[in-house]
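Structure record:
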Amino acid sequence: MSVKEKNKNEMVQSAEDLLCPIRYIMNIFSGKWKLPIVCMLSGDTPLRYSVIKRRLGDVTNVMLAQSLKELEAEGIVHREQYNEVPPRVEYTLTEKGTGVLPALGKLAQWAIGEMQNDASCGIQCTKCQSTM
């Protein structure tokens, strides 16, 4: 096997090794709403379902409930239900959820740079702007 073929095989192996962690990430954060929910919960204040729904805008109740349940099942989001009348439920990030924030911040920084280069894009999220 030539050196060129060996290097090519090593590059293919490296790419294949990357697929497993990337697939893991995509399984957790796939869908339109999960990353915005995580971003929203990155603050210090727990948020109620109605606040999350209002801030997301056009998300349906079914999609929001499903996304929150999936994030909770993955250990990213913590759901706290208070036995009051009327019932109150608040959502926060878990330690695992907080652990992904630095990586999301890096992605947001990259996206901000790309969006500034794209004349058709505007930066709308003030949270993302503050990561720079």
In short: The mean pLDDT is 84.
